Amino acid sequence: MKQIIFLTAYPTTNTLKDGMVQRVKNIDNLFIQTPRVFLDVNIRCYFNKQVCEPTDNVKEYKLNALLHFFVIWKLIKAADIIFLHSVYGAVCTFIQLCLFKKKICLDFHGVVPEENLVINNRFYFYYFKFIEWVSVRLATHVIYVSKVMEQNFVQKYPFITKRRMIYPNYTNIKQDRIPIKFNNANTGNKTVFIYSGNLQNWQNIDDLLKVIHQYQTVPNYHFIILTGQVEQFKKKIVKHHIQLDRIEINSVNSDEIDAYYARAHYGFILRSDHLLNRVANPTKMMEYLLFGITPIVKSVAIGDFNDYQYEYININEFNEYLLPKKSTINQNIALKILNEKEDLVEFVML
User: Given strand 247-250, what is the order of strands in its sheet?
Assistant: First the structure.
C-alpha cells in the first residue's frame, strides 16, 4: 500500500473550530481506512521529538524544523505521496521536498500571500509568495476549493499544467443533515437571523453590528450569533449600544449547529469584493443554502455560488419587513452542488 504523508497537524476537538482545520478533517475522513502519517513541523517549538497515534491508522510526528531536519528528510524520502495542506505545509519542509521527486498533491486552502497583504504584513507577503511559487513548482497534482480559485492560479502561474481538480470545502456535508422540505410554521412568527463565525477582519463585524443595532427593536426579529469568541463579541456588542438580551450568543460544536440553522431564515456573510473572498468557497455559505437560509451579503461574488443564482439580500436592502421564510431555491442549489463532487481519494492515490 502506498504511504501518504499529510504535511499538517492532526485535527483535535480543540482546533476544529478553525476553518483550515475543518478542511483538514474533512479530507482526512476520506482516508480513514488508509494508514497515514501527519507531519507537523515548526521552527519555534517541538524541541523534543513527539510521536503519537491519535487514532487508528494515524501516526503523528511533531518535529522541530532545525533539530529534526534529518528525521523529516527520512520521512519524506520514505513516502510515496505527499499531501501539502496549503502552502503553510511547505514553510518548514520545502528544502526536503526539493530533494526528492515525489507525487505531491497541493491543496490550495486560500491565497496566503494576499491574506498577509490585507493585514499590511509585507514581509510575510513576499515570504509566502516565494513559498507558494516553490510549492507550485514542486506539485504534481493541484486541488482548488473553487473554479474561481483555479482561474486565479492558472492566470498567476501559467506554467501550471499538472493534474488538477476542484474539491470545495463542503463536499463532506451529508445531505441527510436536514429534511428535504421545511415547515416554516416551526419557527412561529419570529424572523430569525444568524451569524456563524469569529471576529476576523474579512467578516466585517462592524457592519453586522450596525444592522443589529438599527433593527434590534423590531418586535418579531431575533438575532443569533454563534462564535468561538463569545466574550470578545460581547464587548463589541456593548460598544455598538446593543442590548445583550436582544441577542442569543453562544459557542457550539459542529454537531450542535444544525439545530440553530434549522431555526434561521437569514444568515449574515458580509465579505467584501476582494480576491480573498472571490476565490473562497466557505463551508458556512453552503450550510446556509442547505438549510434554506437566505444569505445577507455585502458582495455577491463569493466563490462559485453566484454561478448557481442563489437567493440573497444585499445588506443595503435590509429592512424591517423581512418575513420568516425558508428558501427552497437555495436548498435545491445546495443539493445539486453536493451531487457534483469528484472522487478526491482516487485523484490522490492513483
Answer: 247-250, 221-226, 191-196, 266-269, 294-297, 313-314
Angle between helices 328-338 and 283-290 (to 10 degrees): 120
Q: What does the DSSP 8-state code read for residue 11?
A: P
8 A C-beta contact, residue 132 and residue 106: no
Average pLDDT along the chain: 90
- For domain 4-167, the CATH architecture is 3-Layer(aba) Sandwich (3.40)
pTM recorded for the entire structure? 0.81
Q: How does residue 185 score in pLDDT terms, banded at 50, 70 and 90?
A: very low
Section 83-95 average pLDDT: 94
Query: For residue 32, what pLDDT is reported?
Result: 93
Q: Report yes or no: 38 and 62 within 8 Å, Cβ to Cβ.
A: no
Place of cell 470545502: 169
350/254: higher pLDDT: 350
* Degrees, nearest 5: CA angle 190-322-244: 55
Could you give the C-alpha distances from 26 to 3, 295, 327, in angstroms and in order?
19, 24, 26
Domain boundaries of the chain, sorted by first residue: 4-167, 175-338
What number does CATH give the domain 175-338?
3.40.50.2000
pLDDT at 327 (0 to 100): 95
- Name residues whose C-beta falls within 8 Å of residue 116's C-beta, 6 or more positions apart in sequence: 122, 124, 125, 128
The answer to whether 110 touches 144, Cβ cutoff 8 Å, is no
